[in-house]
Amino acid sequence: MHIRDLDAYKSWKMMDSLNTGNGTTTSTGKASGTNPYTSGVPGDIEEPLVAHLVELRNRLAIVLVWLFLGIILAFPFSAKGILLVWKGFISTDIYMTAYSPLEWIFARLKLSLVFALAISIPQFFYQLYRFAGKGLYPHERRFFLKVIPASFLLFIIGAAVGYFIVLPVMFKYILFYSGDMATAQLSVQNTFSAITTILAGFGIVFQLPLLVVFAVKMGLIEYQTLKKQRILVYSLIMAVSLFLSPDPTFIAQILVALLLGVLFEFSLLIIRLF
To answer: pTM (2 decimals)?
Structure first.
């Protein structure tokens, strides 16, 4: 055997011994030890970071497609929706005012966005499940599948709270508090910007119990940590409520803060019970 062949043989034997110690397949086809490239979840195989990023991009693109389709489906009915909301919360004696040619179109698009979010948020959780599903244990997968319909239901409940409780307070008791002192002239785009912000905002806010329970179940945060950091959580709640509602009187912000506090405590109760 030549010296070059002898060196190659020694290198091969060294690599073979290393592979045997790491649990990879040897030249005889047998495996020993553990494989460092797999986790404890059956069927989970580590992939390159680029592959994960590409998959994440594709799944986010699917969510955006659902959002776009939701806007397209809701847009033909948005004009009737605007008239319904205007008659219900404002008054038929006050005319819609458009200060630009596209203002009516933008108002319809914003109202259509609420419907699009309602169907896109469950799709977001489903795509998140598909992305992380290989690394989840069976009980975690079952929990994830329960999140999808729950997210849609919570969004509808949140939007309903904004529609039946917050909007009447804003329009009937706040915006028209001036009475006979001034004549109200409302821009249709600005008015429905406020309406869609409240409807979509409350729908997203009602995802809080789901997110808190999800974070604890997945081991992202400890239950005891949430209990001990209540002051920090309530500070964040106050900050979020200030940016969520466009009400200049801060009544809607106070309602949002109270609602978030109740939802947070409800989340802790669910975790403790289940």
So the answer is: 0.70
